[in-house]
């Protein structure tokens, strides 16, 4: 009778160990930490950020329904940032007064 529950417990432990890749000890813990960190930064955090952004937009829209809400990031001016060829590292010189 005592051997049956011990055998069952051993079978459950080996099943759980095998389902986790058969790793034991520190390597098992390290692999779970890496997998959890990747899952957080690839799935959980982006969805939380998206939800937070949607809530902020909804709060802005509900405060004043006719207010303008920015939906895109502003495009930088190509002349100012030097994106147009030949405008890099040039400073503006003041015009001489006559």
UniProtKB/TrEMBL annotation:
Source species: Prunus avium
Gene name in the database record: LOC110757691
Biased composition (Basic residues): 89-98
Annotated TM spans: 25-44
Highest taxon of source: Eukaryota
Keywords: Membrane, Transmembrane, Transmembrane helix
Region (Disordered), start-end ranges: 55-98
Protein name (database record): Uncharacterized protein LOC110757691
Presence of keyword Membrane: yes
